[in-house]
Amino acid sequence: MKKLVMVGGGYGGMRILQKLLPNELPDDVELVLIDKLPYHCMKTEYYALAAGTESDQEVRVPFPKEDRLVLRFGTVEKIDRENRLIHLLGEEPVSYDYLIIGLGCEDKYHGVPGADVHTYSIQSMEKTRRTSEALNNLPPNSVVSVVGAGLSGVELSSELRESRDDLYIRLFDRGETILPMFPKRLSNYVQNWFEKNNVDVISNSDITKVEKDGLYNHNEFMPSDAIIWTAGVQPNQVVRDLDVEKDDKDRIILTNHHHLPDDENIYVVGDCASLPHAPSAQLAEGQGEQIASILKKRWKGEELPNRLPPIKLKGVLGSLGKKHGFGVMGETALTGRVARLLKSGVLWMYKHHSGV
What we know:
Blueprint: E1 2-7, H1 11-20, E2 29-35, E3 39-41, H2 46-51, E4 60-62, E5 69-73, E6 76-80, E7 85-88, E8 94-95, E9 98-101, E10 105-107, H3 115-118, H4 125-136, E11 143-147, H5 151-163, E12 168-172, H6 184-196, E13 199-202, E14 207-211, E15 214-217, E16 220-223, E17 226-229, E18 233-235, H7 237-240, E19 259-260, E20 263-268, H8 281-299, E21 315-320, E22 324-329, E23 332-336, H9 337-353
């Protein structure tokens, strides 16, 4: 009996489960999923949980209930490639024949003193819960600083504004223009929304130090009652500790078939994989689909294609609270209620049709 072990039940892992269960897994292969939590979490919605506009349960999706799937709950401490073992905190190690690494990412603090100690996070369910508690317990007229004006920072700031109109919210942006990766019209739309809704966007910022009661921007101290860090991510520590070839962002370099160059039985999916596009749920799902197809071909003894087709991304949608949004679908830029309705529809479909 061979054992396929998947560490991390994120977006890529869920897609792999969809493609293998219930009927595409050979009788001689056991499938084991290891995750810290007993459910899949919709990480793209953590900003709403942190802001207090969605409940904990609304960002969960149950793992499939299948006889062929063994669920193990625990925290992965180390991957031992030599002995093909997954070491878990306080648990017995789990052996594997095939391994899929999908451990996701965590905050990257870029060496800013105090940032890892004095900021809140929305990179894991546990940390987002703590952030939510802190934000929703703030007294009236508190100051909240959000460091990092990428998609996560923008969505968190806008959702928090709708949740708490009494707060003074600052959004620190390193660039000249907010969301420069989007068309200029979208960037202007988001900037105007923040101006109308009294979110202070501080452009060309450089956070040099963080303390318990505030942060330094270009060495100017700015008091804050809560600071949320959304200014960059890096692969999980377990992945960073692996002795494998990585790119300049510490993501694992893979073959065309998504496995390690020196081990065709270890695949990497999602935020830990070095891919041509920036990490996203959509990219992880596309990659998960390809990994599942490769495994099925290998198990059937079929020849693998020399190169897999590029993963096609449909677009990006962002929210500005519950009524407004922005995004790009194909070559079409969208703003306002239509963009927000589209995002809501995509999320509804995912939540209610992601089971096996």
